[in-house]
Amino acid sequence: MVNVEVAYAKPEQQVIVTVAMEEGATVEAAIKTSGLLELFPEIVLSELKAGIFGVACKLDQPVREGDRIEIYRPLVHDPKEARRQRALKGF
């Protein structure tokens, strides 16, 4: 068994759940086991982006002891477009 954390954060709330997984379990399995999909219905597994310690990963990647899996929310604004709009206001 390996122990991993699954984290999800919203502007007003952060939740980190520790789960024990079988050796060879995937990121997707850990997310499902964490119960965060039920707790936060806005998380859609088929559209989900995740990472381990801030590095993007695929859902079929095996987890290792001590990994912190992070579920990422979609960006509200495109950073490049936001920068472009700020620059236009400056002229």
TrEMBL record:
* Taxonomy, superkingdom: Bacteria
Q: Where are the transmembrane segments?
A: none
Coiled-coil regions listed? none
Family the UniProt entry places it in: Belongs to the UPF0125 (RnfH) family.
Name this protein carries in UniProt: UPF0125 protein Mettu_3012
Species per Swiss-Prot/TrEMBL record: Methylobacter tundripaludum (strain ATCC BAA-1195 / DSM 17260 / SV96)
Lineage, uppermost ranks:
Bacteria, Pseudomonadati, Pseudomonadota, Gammaproteobacteria, Methylococcales
